[in-house]
């Protein structure tokens, strides 16, 4: 019998996390289809990044289950989940600023295939990896910046590289935590175009405050508030939902 989760990229069941006294995530059930474009929204402190960390394994769950592509990964390490095809970016950048764009992309792809980081000194020999690295650079619009140290890149280009770092891992699912934060309108447009151009079989889960971007990229939206899912629906349904409007209005008065 095929498991009912087989066509689901992500299933969480009653996932919870408490930090000290703070219940960051409280009994969250999610079900995201393979190839779906899903946004996760909610006010600051709602638990969005924590939920990402629970799914990727960066933070262990207190309770509940996490299934990725039909496998129960609740007790898998970050690396093992990444090898199943889970790629992500972080709200705080994880780029190697002193290395070039090409070297960053290479390290990300090498980490995913489990070659190990000690091979950086020998990376010039790995022509297959280098070809892949160039493919990814092109996908994220960085071909002309391949050999520049990351520290020299404008903020928008660094965000493009973060997307590239996730794509370099050949992910089947990609999780982006506020990819457009701090970007200019023009930089946002570029990033949205690159995300839209991703292969349609890659599942996308996006945390984003910019509602224009959310509406443009997401097929479905999950709204988190105080650690719980308050509602889920299409962009139109969420836009019209009075409870969602109250949550955001409420935040503005705090
Ligand atoms: P969001 O991403 O929606 O803004 P977070 O998941 O970052 O929310 O945070 C949810 C709650 O959990 C907040 O109250 C935050 O302070 C707390 N929190 C998150 N990570 C940690 C941590 N590592 N240690 C302690 N508290 C944390
Ligand atoms: Mg966050």
Describe this structure in words.
The structure is a single chain. This protein is an alpha/beta fold and 254 residues long. Helix content is 36%, strand content 24%. It is built from 9 helices and 10 strands. It has helices at residues 48-56, 78-83, 101-113, 127-139, 155-168, 185-196, 211-217, 235-240, 242-253, and strands spanning 8-19, 22-33, 37-41, 63-68, 71-72, 86-88, 173-177, 203-207, 220-225, 228-233. Bound molecules: adenosine-5'-diphosphate and magnesium ion (MG). Adenosine-5'-diphosphate binds at residues 19, 22, 24, 42, 44-50.
Please give a handful of descriptors for the protein shown.
254 residues; alpha/beta; Rossmann fold; 2 domains; 4-stranded antiparallel β-sheet; 36% helix; 24% strand; globular; binds adenosine-5'-diphosphate; binds magnesium ion
| Amino- and carboxy-terminal Cα gap | 51 Å
Give the number of helices: 9
Give the class-level CATH name of the largest domain.
Alpha Beta
Number of domains: 2
How much helical structure, as a percent, in the residues?
A: 25-40%
Percent of residues in beta strands:
15-25%
Structural class: alpha/beta
Catalogue the unreliable spans: none
What's the count of strands? Answer: 10
Question: Main beta sheet: strand number and arrangement?
Answer: 6 strands, mixed
Q: What ligand molecules are bound, each kind once?
A: adenosine-5'-diphosphate, magnesium ion
Give the gist of this structure:
The protein has helices spanning 48-56, 78-83, 101-113, 127-139, 155-168, 185-196, 211-217, 235-240, 242-253; strands at residues 8-19, 22-33, 37-41, 63-68, 71-72, 86-88, 173-177, 203-207, 220-225, 228-233.
